[in-house]
Each structure stands twice: as structure tokens, then as C-alpha cells.
Amino acid sequence: MRVKVLIVEDSKASREYIAAMVEAVEGVEVVVTSSGFEALKLLPRHRFELIITDINMPDINGLELINFVKKNPNYRDVPLFIITTEGREQDRERGLALGAVEYLVKPFLPGSLEALLRRYLKLP
Amino acid sequence: MSPGSKALSEFVAEATEILDALARDLLVLDERRGHEADPDLVNGIFRAAHSLKGLSGLFGQERISRLAHGTEDLLDRLRLGKLLLDGAVLDALIEVLDAFQALLGEAARGTESEGLSARVETMAARMASMGAPAEVAEEDPLDRLELEAQVRSVFTEYEEHRLRENVRRGVALWRVRAAFDLSDFDKGLVELNARLKPLGEVISTLPSAQPGGAHGIAFDLIFGAQVDQAALETGLKGTPAELSALTVRPAAEAATSALLQAAQPSATMRSTSPRGGGKKKKRARATPAALPPEARPPLLPHVPEDTEPGPLEWPTSDAALPADAGGAPSPAHVPGPSSVPVVAYLQGAAKASPKGLSVAPALPAGAPVSPQATLTADTSLRSLTQTVRVDIGRLDGLINMVGELLLIKANLQRLAESARQDGAVALSKLFGQELARETRGLERKLEALQEGLLEARMVPVGQVFDKLARLVRRITREAGKEIELAISGGEVELDKLIVEELSDPLMHLIRNAIDHGVESPDARLASGKPRRAVVGLRAEQKGNHVVIEVSDDGAGIDEVRVREVAITRGVITFSQAQEMSRRELLNLIFQPGFSTARSVSELSGRGVGLDVVKNNLGNLSGIIDVWSERGRGTAFHLTLPVTLAIIRALLVGVSGRTYAVPLNSVLEIISVQPREIRTVERREVLDLRGQTLPFVRLARMFALPERPVSRHFVVVVGLAQERLGIAVDELHGQQDIVTKPLGGRLQSVRGISGATDLGNRRTVLVLDVAALLEEGMAVERRRA
Q: What is the pLDDT of residue B86?
């Protein structure tokens, strides 16, 4: 049985790139969405083992999504990764303070992401 | 995932979209120069740069990433209020946009020029050095706002800045809580946002920690209201929203008056401060529950080490610090009356931008240039991608049609099978009827499918207009003119291919209008015109055609000088010139050989490669027409078909050969006796309902043996105002055709636009109606 990972990122090319890297890890199924709103809708419909979210998005921001997940007893244990770009340190720190476990700075190396995924998804 | 060509084209497509959006927003900012910028707009531009940075980083586009990084930094300082959006910053942003486009062009071609790389470095350095830091506010106005630390901790830096700005300006803040059903909360929120937007600013949208039940979700919107409570309540009537006011403790007395005083010089501030002042009293009545120091956000200790020390740094002192609260609005937020409050492209802007940074080497007006050179001197405005965005509804419709076609195919198969088994003898009348019915159904469905596919290729012509608007800004600056660009009809749709091909001819016409059509501001004043000229760019759909007008209210074309130049250059003879009408004289500017380098300066105006423009349009089956009146201006009208892909054609026969005439330019077909043909000034003409109609014999035009006939079929064709009767021997009916271009030597044959396959392995030539219309006049003139 494959584990599900949710990717929330509004840039299509980035989203697909990240999805391709996550999907390349054996045993992982990817669900992608371009908005925080959609992510809120997807949460009750799937059992996600990990959420990767961008911070700057048009409807609700990634921090709000993290806060929502962490406050909800149904999802609070799902590990969260934030995707950020260089230079947005304050947003990143806030994300970590809200309960995100890792941050990925674009552009990052596929190798490092795979290692992180294996660790948090408890894959061999 | 290696960035192969598919990945690269995906990157280019998305980057192009980002840049298009960026360009649109920048244009709005540019038009509102001197006014306070809409924070949403600035944030939108920031987000675009941010996305571009992330995207280009992912795809290994280092130069774009580097420039985007610098741009994002600059925009970040802007949106966080650390930098004033002045003319110099705006100019820099516009130049950066041009550079991005050049970079993307190189990325798409897989090249990297050193010149561009160097420019990226210069620009990045220039942007980094821009702007003096705003005055340091000693107290953070946000500390006066009573809001749970938990809520504050989920704001992004930007949201926090907007909140701070609202507090500082004394805007009444509300928490708007609304619960929705989980299945469609986004619709509800969009509606709520639409209601709120005219009443103020939605600063943040927070999903609530306690959703309303198992299938519900609640949101808290932090809202800065520009209206009073009653108006807000009225505005939200019928929505599930509940309001609760956020308390802001009053700033120290002295600070408040300092704030109001400082706000005085600004026109924009004046309009908001009385309202703000009203709120202030109201807030003062609210319970000033002091915020204990511990209640300040616990998350901020990280900040000082991460961000560079700046005015927005969180106060390390206690919140109760007396200070001149709110930080008297620094000049950075208050555009003084000295800024230029006009919506126009002013030459003054040139001073602010070093010439060295402009993308294309500016062509000094009057410098010798060949037509080809002018067309390539500006960065081409063509898109880098071949993609068209199609509404999913349209695609679904197409898929449905294919489904219906499959049904018809199944029926035909069944009929074929029964015919095969029963043999030809048994074929009944009933069978024939059934077959005919299916064929009609097939025809209808195919027509619908074709129409649907053509629609899917349509894009708004505004895509090109937006790009041209940017160009106008640059050329205006270079030419030292003052110009207002009036655009309309951007929503008119044309085939993607045509829109793409149009960009260069339009760019050319606009450049001519600015460089040569429009007079200098002083000359305009001297002739009693307003300083600022108006250049118009308009599109309008007329039946199967779209007319695009490029106009100016400049000096107009001097036909006397056109005549002189045309004679000097040997384009026409003196005696020909004697016979020509003003309109014919004006049309000489499109003749090859008319425009040469020197004529640019000799002729107070046009002539730079207009023959090239005309040829480009001809390739699109379009024609160009000029109107000009001395002292009043010039207008070019480009008449184009809506699509090129599949056209309906009339098949005609001449001397045993078949030709196809695009039906969209056929007005009518008449039968004419040879004696009805008259000769006027050595041209053959017909009388058609009292109007004189120029007439050509297709056989004679293509040097085919002419047959003696008792009557001619005359196909009357027309584009824009031009009309022409074309004599043919036979009419074969109508058919849908796909025109294929002619290769090699045949390409330059006048009067033929391409070839088409009629389906029965017969290839016929397609007439170029636009060229024939011109030929109709020119042929006769040559013979003269």
C-alpha cells in the first residue's frame, strides 16, 4: 500500500517538478493542488502521510494552512514541509514555529528531498 | 528529471505567463504614476517576481533567477513600505521586464549572449542600490492592536505589514467570521471577498481552528474597513459573516497630532485621514485593555538575526514605549504634490533611466535605416510559445462532437456491411435515403467540429496590445515626445497565428506614428494642439473580418512631398503622378522602393519600410489602408480575416484551369456581356448599380490563352473599401479548403496565396484577393 503525499504549490511548473521528484520515490502516491482552499477540501477526503506546501499563495497562505492542520486533531500529526525560496527567512521561521518540520529552499537537490521523504514517511 | 526540451518549453510557457501578468500590472502602476500605488497591485508584482525566481531556479535558468532575485528584493522593500515607488524605481522595473523577455527569448533558443549577461549584472546591482531606507519608526503600531499572538503568528511578513499600515493610518479593523459548508466554502469566500473588497482591504484569510461541525469550516478574515460599521453591516447583509471589532489602543496624544500633521501635504492622505480621524474617536471609546508584554508574538526572536536591520524590525523595547507612535508617515508613503500626477508617458522620465540599460538600441529618428533593420531593431513582440489556452468547456464540447461522429461512423459501417452482403442489386430507395441522412448528419457534425476547433484557436488581440503599450512607453521616452496611448477593442478575438504575425507590423506602425507622425510638444503647442499627442490602437470586428486601426493626431502626411519623393525615386513617372488622386498618392508610401533611408528625414514622416508591413499583412490575407489629413493626423486601417486555418472557397475555372477564391472576400457574382465592359482612362471597368467597378480578366492576368465568350462570370471581391470584378469562364461551386503555402520560387508569384488539395488528388492554386485588388490598379498603371 502506497502512502499519500499532498503537494500544495501554485506555480504549475514547480508543482509538477516537485511532484515528479516525490513520485520517483517508490511507495509514494502524490496528490497535487494549486491552492490552499483546495488543500482544505482535500484534507478530509484522503489520509495524507505528509504535506508539502508553498508559503506565498493567493487564497490562504501556507502558514495558515500549517496552523489549520496543526490545530485540527485529525491531522495534527501529519508532518509538514514548507517550500520557500531564498530570502524569505521570516516566513520560513514562522512556518517552522507553527509546526512545520522541514523547509525546502528552491532550487533544491532531488537527493536531499528523497532522504527527507524516506525519513518522515518511514520508508526503508 | 533532466530539463529536456519538453521541460524547457513548459518553463518558457509558464514564465511567459508570469511576465505577461507582470507587464499588465506594471502598466497599471505606470499609468497611475504619481498616485499612491494599490498595495494589491504591488503585491501582485512581487508575487510574479517571486514565482519567476522559484521557477527559473528549478529549471536551472541562472540568469533569470538572479535577475528575478534582485527584482523580488526590490519589490519586497516596496510592498513592505521600505522603499518609495517613484519614477526611477518604476523605470527600472519596466527595463527589467524587457530584460526578462530578452532572457527568456535566449533561454527558449538555448543561447546565452554575453551582452545580456552583463546587463543582468548591471541591473541587479542597480536595483540593489535603489532607495534610501525609510525613517525608522520607534514604535510598532501593531503593538497597539489587540490580537491574539496565535493569530499574529500565521501572518506572512507582507500581511503583517499591511496590518501595520492599516493600524498606522487609523483604519477601523474588524474580524469577519464566516462558516461555510466544506464542499463549497471557496465559492462562499469568493463571494464574501467580492462584497468586502469595495469596502476596504482584506488583510488575511485564516481558516479557523474550530471548524463549524464535521462538514463545515469557518474562516476569520482580518479586514481594514474604509466605511463605518453601519455601511459594513449593510454591505454584508445576506452573507453568513459575523463582525467583531478589533481594538486598537490610542497612540500618545502628541503622536496622533504628528501623524495628522504629517499627513497634510499629501492629496491621497487628505482624502483618507478625515475618515481615519473619525475612527480614532470611536476606537478611543473602546476598552483600552493594555496588552501585557508577554502577549507579544512569541515567534519573533528569530527575526533580528535573519533580516537585515531595517525600519520594520520588531521593537525590542516594551510596547508601552511613548514614542511618536505609528512612526510619522515617512516621505516614503506619502507622494507629495510634487510628483507628476498625470497619466501619460512623459519625456521627463528619460532622465531617470540611464540609456545604457534600454533593451534595444534606440534608433535615432531620422537615422538611415533599412526596413529590415527597423523590424528587428526592437525586441520582437512575438510570443515564445506556440500554446493557446483553451476553456475546458470548449474542449468538452469538441469531445462530445467526436462521440457523435463515432455514432455516425457506426451507422455508416452498418450500412456498408448490409450493402456488401445484399449486393448492389438489392439496394433499395430506403437504403439510399438512410445513407443520405447519415451523410447529412456527418456533414453537420463535421461543420460543428471545425467551427469548434477554429474557436479554440482564437485569442484576444489585447495580448498584442498589452505588449505594444509597453513599447510605446519606451519609444516615447527615446523620441522625447509626450504621448497618451488610447487602446480599445482588446477583447476582439483573432486566430492565434494572426495575432502573432500582427505584432511586428503593428509595432512598426506605432513606432512610425511616434517617431514621425507625432510632432514635438513645442511644435504641437505652436500649432494650437495640446502638448500631449494621442496615439490610438483600436480593434473592431466587422463580420468575418477584424479591422485594426493605428492612428495619431500628428502632422499628417504631406502628399505633395510623397509625390516629389515618388517621382525622384522612380516609383512613378511624372505623367502618372499627374493622373493620381490624393488617395492613390498616399498609397504610394507602401510601394517598395519608395521608402529608403533618406526619405525618413526628408519626408516629415512615414516611409520606413511600410512595404514590408504591407507584405506581412498580405501574407495574412489582410490589407492595409491609409487615411491622412494634413495637420489632423494619420490613421492606418488593417483589415484581416478572423482565421486562416480552414476557409470556404469558391472554385472557378479559367482557360481550363481551376482556381480557388476565398469566399470571405467574395461579395457577389454577376454575369456580364462583353459589351458592358467599358474603358476609362485605359482601365477596364464595369458599371455595377451605378458604381464604377475596376475589372480584370484572370486569364489575361496569368497570361493564359483567352477564349472568346458570349458572357463573363464576374466574381466581385472586396476588402475594406476596395472592390474588384474578376472575370472567369466557369463557376464550379464551393468547398472548404486548407491553404498550404507555396515553397521556393512560386512564393513570390503575385496574386497567388497558396495551393490546396481538393480531396480528389487535384491541386489547385488559391487566389490572393488582397494582392489582386492592388494589382487591379497597378496592372493598368504599368500598361499606361
A: 80
Reduced to 3 states (helix: H, G, I; strand: E, B; else coil), residue B523 is helix
Note whether A13 contacts B204, CB cutoff 8 Å: no
- Provide the sign of the torsion angle of the four alpha carbons B675, B681, B684, B685, taken in this order: negative
Given an 8 Å threshold on Cβ–Cβ distance, is B302 in contact with A90?
A: yes
Please report which confidence band the pLDDT of residue B550 belongs to, taking 50, 70 and 90 as the band edges.
Answer: very high
State the pairing for strand pair A80-85/A48-54.
parallel
CA atoms within 13 A on the CB side of B205: 27
* Burial grade of B122 (CB within 10 A; 0-12, 13-18, 19 or more): middle
CATH architecture of B459-641: 2-Layer Sandwich (3.30)
Distance from CA of A57 to the nearest CA of B (A): 8
Q: Which of B153, B194, B146 is nearest to B174 (CA)?
A: B146
Q: Which of B655, B612, B618, B610 has its CA nearest to residue B639?
A: B618
Q: Which residue's C-alpha cell is 484572370?
A: B698
B69, B150, B207 member nearest A60 (Cβ)? B207
Contacts of B330 (CB under 8 A, 6+ apart): B134, B135, B137, B311
Distance CA B666, CA B116 (A): 50
Query: How much is the pLDDT for A31?
Result: 93
Interchain proximity A21–B186, CB inside 8 Å? no
Distance CA B403, CA B129 (A): 61
In this complex, the residue of A44, A68, A85 whose CB is nearest that of residue B207 is A68
B204/A41 Cβ within 8 A: no
pLDDT digits (tens, 9 = 90+) for B561-587: 888 888 887 788 888 888 888 888 888
Q: What is the CATH number of domain B647-783?
A: 2.40.50.180
Strand B533-542: give its sheet, edge to edge: B483-488, B533-542, B545-552, B633-641, B623-629
Cell numbers found for residue B56: 527559473
Q: Classify domain B5-134 by CATH number.
A: 1.20.120.160
Give the CA angle between residues B735, B738, B739 to the nearest 5°. 115
Degrees to nearest 5, angle at CA B46 with B40 and B52:
135
pLDDT one-digit tens code per residue, B180-199: 887 778 888 888 888 888 88
Mean pLDDT of A39-55: 90
Return d(Cα B223, Cα A76) in angstroms, integer.
Answer: 28
How close, in Å, is residue A124 to chain B by CA atoms? 22
Domains and CATH numbers, chain A: 3-121 (3.40.50.2300)
**Which residue type sits at B129?**
S
Pick from A40, A71, A90: CB nearest B209: A71
Q: Do B4 and B310 contact (CB within 8 A), yes or no?
A: no
CA nearest to B587, candidates B636, B536, B538 = B636
Measured between alpha carbons, how far is B602 from B373 in angstroms, rounded to an integer?
Answer: 19
Helix, strand, coil share (%) of chain A residues, nearest 5:
45, 25, 30
Please give the full DSSP string across B539-597, using - where no structure is assigned. EEEETTEEEEEEEE-SS---HHHHHHHHHHTTSS-HHHHHH--HHHHHHGGGSTTT--T
Q: What's at B366, amino acid-wise?
A: G
Give residue for cell 447519415. B438
The pLDDT value given to residue B781: 47
Closest CA to B54 of A113, A86, A109: A86
